[in-house]
Specification:
single chain, mainly alpha, 261 residues, 12 helices
Amino acid sequence: MPDFLIYALAAGLGLALVAGPLGSFVVWRRMAYFGDTLSHSALLGIALGMLLDINLTLAVTAGCVLLAVILVALQNRQWLASDTLLGILAHSTLSLGLVVLALTDNVRVDLMAYLFGDLLAVSEHDLYWMLGGLALVVVLLGLLWRQLLSVTVHEELARVEGRPVTAIRLALMLLIAIVIAVAMKVVGVLLITSLLIIPPAAAQRHAHTPEQMALGASILGCLAVLGGLGMSWNLDTPAGPSIVVSAALLFVMAVSLPRRA
């Protein structure tokens, strides 16, 4: 098997394993639009990274984390509805990123690779960076799992019990931001949210506990990666969109099957 395909498999499967449980919280808390907002802000991170000549993954991570902090701060002020804030920030950061790229005349970048992913171009260095970030997310998610569940099930009750609701909500947003940043090369900034939503949504139909849903989402995400890479290899289609198509087909299959009692 060629090295580039091994790197692609390792990166895609690693992302799927982490996106499953993390995406379950995205589905439970109805945060799909938040994921879109962060993925759009990633393009601004790319533009600033190229303008300042710094590591793009680091620039995207910093941009996503900063946006997550701004979102939590604005939501706590209750100045505007959350969906309105997300809409403003999503389109503003995406447009600002495109403007910054247009102003950097001496920089030429393949936007398609960043918008829709270029999994087969993942290098050994990229793989180490990605797996390191995903490992950090797994450790933090494991430590915060019970608290995240408590806040997700009943936020007001968790607040009464003395749990740091705002800090826990911020931690979840930061974990999503890290995953989006390190996954940029896998499916692109415009498609990353699909891996955080489609596998968990498919697993939700047949799961009876949060843990079952998280595990099922990871398994379905891995199957989507394998199916997408197989489609890309045999049909010469883009790897990122092929993974999303595979995930969508698995979702259709999941909702078509009768639920277990």
